[in-house]
Specification:
The chain is an alpha+beta fold. It has 2 helices and 9 strands, in the order ββαββββαβββ. It has a single domain (4-150), classed as Alpha-Beta Barrel (Multidrug-efflux Transporter 1 Regulator Bmrr, Chain A), CATH 3.20.80. Helices cover 20% and strands 44% of the residues. Strands 1, 2, 3, 4, 5, 6, 7, 8 and 9 form a 9-stranded antiparallel β-sheet that branches. β3 and β4 form a beta hairpin.
Length: 153
């Protein structure tokens, strides 16, 4: 599996936060709550896309924060029960995935690909990007963006 490489500027997202250790149905459960809310908060004319943004991973406990979210602006109001995060600018390795292969993709990148290719996990957030072609099925493709930086030589 070969990634694309992409640099992204900082951007803002708004959505529903989950925090803890991942497990079956934990992250999908937050999406079940968020998806019905999207139509009510998406500005008219904004393209249909959503993100899953991960940050603050604690290697000792396996806990992290996850925001099921959509793009917003810095000055946009935050709906009740939601949070707004600023995703920092970063360089990314971008890998395709599906809901059926998401676990395998994370494992491959974090255990097999990243160190062997001369990169390490960079500062920033890991991002799942669900664009307008994503239909929610187990086989529909989306992208996972892993923040990277070159390993010191």
């Amino acid at each position: 599996m070969k990634p694309e490489f992409k640099s992204l500027p900082s951007f803002w997202v708004v959505g529903i936060k989950w925090q803890g250790q991942n497990g079956p149905e934990k992250i999908p459960g937050i999406w079940d709550k968020f998806v019905p809310m999207i139509a009510g908060i998406r500005p008219e004319g904004q393209k249909r896309e959503a993100f899953g943004v991960e940050r603050n991973f604690d290697a000792a406990t396996g806990e992290f924060e996850y925001l099921a979210c959509m793009p917003t602006t810095e000055d946009a109001p935050v709906p009740d029960g939601m949070e707004k995060w600023q995703v920092p600018a970063a360089d990314y390795a971008v890998f395709p995935a599906t809901l059926a292969t998401i676990g395998e993709t994370y494992t491959y990148v974090l255990r097999d690909w990243i160190g062997k290719q001369g990169y390490e996990h960079g500062p920033g957030s890991t991002i799942e990007h669900y664009d307008e072609t994503f239909d929610g099925s187990k086989t529909s493709e989306f992208k996972i963006l892993f923040p990277i930086k070159k390993m010191p030589q």
